[in-house]
Target: Clathrin assembly complex beta adaptin component
Amino acid sequence: MTDSFAKFSSMLESAKDLTIEAAVSASSRLTDTPSGSRQVEIPKLLNSRSDRDILTGMKCVIAATARGEDGLPYFADVVKNVTTSNESIRNLVLIYLTRYAEVEPDTALLSINSIQKSLNEKNAISRAKAIRALAGIRISSILPIVLLCIKRTLTDPSPLVRSATAIAIGKAFDIDDLESSSKKQMVEYLTKLLSDSDSSVVSTAIKTFYKLLPQFSTSSKIWDPIHGNFRRFCSIINEFDEWSQGFLIDILTEYSRRFLPRPKLYSVDESNQVIDLPEDYSQIPFSAYEVSFDEDLNLFLNSLKVLLYSRSESVILAVARAVYFLAPPSTFKDFQLSQPLVRIASTSRDSQISLFALQIISSISWKDQSIFVNNVKNFYVYPSDSFEVASSKLDILASLAQEKNIKYILEELKYYTLSSRNSDIAREAIISIGRCSQLSPEWNRKILRWCLKQIQKTTGSILNELLTVVRYLIQQKNSFTLNVANERDEIINTTYQLSLILRDSSLNLESDAKASIVWIIGEFTGVAENAIGPDVLRHLIKGFSKEEETTRYQILMLAAKVASYEVKRIKTEAGDDEDIYNQRLGNSINYKMFQHALHLAKYDNSYDTRDRARMLNILLNSSSSMSELATLFLQVPKPVPVVGSKKDASLVQARALEEYLAIRDWSEADTLPKADIRKEAKVIFNSLGGAGISSFSSVEKSPTPPQMPTSRSISSESYLNSRVPEKKQTYHLQSLDDFFGNDESEESSSEDEEDDEEEEEDEDEDEDENEDNEEDDDEDDEEDDEEVSSSDEEQDSHESDNYASDSDTKRALLSKE
Model:
């Protein structure tokens, strides 16, 4: 018999599996059919009386929508299924409604009543889905209904529903034409959820608050919910999910910069200086110091130590960002954040996360290279690295260059410049080489010699960057070591080598590279006492018309600079004698070349070149006073170029990085509020108690709501404890002997049941007498007390009657047997 039952069960399971497979295959065939026939078949399924057919039709609609097809033709057929009792169908209908309700607002309004009725269901999951779907239907006309439903579910005893309410608040803000009064009301609701006793509800409310924070960035009132919950958030931050932890860290970091005082740094030397933490670490005037934090800021920073062991990379990045913006480098070292950041930057599968980690490391390294100086090898570029990641690594390598590691870093950068298949990465490597030249004059000289050798071997954008670095290196020498004879000779030698490269026709330099070399020669021809510039000008002016626009413009400027030095020399020799000045100036070869360049530029195709030629003609050909103005204009020292990165990253990614690494300034000390503003707010509990559901019972610093007996209500706990616990019935398989038992056993069992029944009736009578005595003692109570007691008596009597009727039924069945 047992074997036959097992075989029958296996047959049923096989039939069930075959039915499910057939339904799935039918659904898949329907989704693959042409759209013309599909628009006929799907409405038939949606209008069917069978839940299975309706579910199949809804799956087809959702699948078509997920593929990017238009699901709007089925709107009317889908909406009418919102009243179904099948949970699977209703969930798919709600998903469809949130997608297309804005397109068909009038038809979507027919489903609002049904969704609103779902808030009365006993299943908490159904209530949560209903409030989320109701807020997701972004129709401005139902906003009052949404607000009423949010107010209702705000006190729901289920944490799942309250979490869904927090999500609904965030969705309601997306509704168009939202009035300021409604926004204020929803912020008040969100404030209550942030003070909820359940950590999952607070976690969801934090996500919604983080979403709404940019909309109220100019208002300080949006931070009112954080004031009273700041210390509580710091104590329960490890109870939140990973996304909420990251959001909360960013929120509290912003809060700390806005409402908490800066840390103070105390020098440990004899000076005993005390300063506020500067925005830039490099501005700290002493290397050894002690830090003093505000109590609340110290509480927040200590709460982050536990999160260093989080498995979420975003949480670790948020912790590093918070410590970087709120504490000095010594605290960053104490947290030992270097190893987690290096691990994320090196091993993260998400390129965005890795890029954020590299950006934080780069920002810190330029201000204090001692934190990551021992991890240089972790920032070597791999062939598989994207341009953004490689560029960040090269920037970090340049920031970590020291006398003890510059040799190895420079060799790596040279290798990337000459061997990288990506020209953008090679260009960034050259920029990093230029940054390394700031280390010392000796390394400046070595890097300059290497760059001059590579100019003849490279082309394109790499050559342009090499010339930019050469210009940067020469201007560094010209600015700081002009009085040193060796450096002056090296500048002349470099200018001369560039002039030889310019004359070599076999190199086929591009126009941008040629224009850069001409600019460098013109800028530093004065260092060589105007000896190199005239020769280069004499060579270039012959092919002026054959050069590109940028090169022609720079040739004109070179001629003007050569002429300005010539005018200055003749003016010094002639003194105040105008005749001698004009005579020597007219016979000067350099001045005649300038006049010829002006004549050529007068008929140039470029508007900029013609305009600049007219300006130079007025300055250098009018009078000696104007010539002095031209000399000042042309010979003034130019600023050293910023050897920076020219990343071609997408604007969206660049903006995301900029926003992530941006932070507001510290507030001034005289504008900060008092510390008692962060007094812990009361935690709001939502629990069952009293005669019904209590909306809120506020208790401060209590993990569970206390049970306080009152004269006006009878707690459910005391009522249940007063009842005699019923014996649990046990069920077991009967044998044939038990089933066909003798009459004696039946009589004995019936007698036992009668005895038990009499005992229970006696206990009920005792309870009734006790209640009567209590009523006599409380005759002066109000009417609501009488109603509560009378309702309890009726309930007890009703239960005793039911129990008696059940026992009579049992005796009747036993007598029949």
Observations:
- The two ends are 26 Å apart (CA to CA).
- Residues 687-723 form one domain.
- The first strand starts at residue 264 and ends at 267.
- Residues 751 and 757 are 10 Å apart (CA to CA).
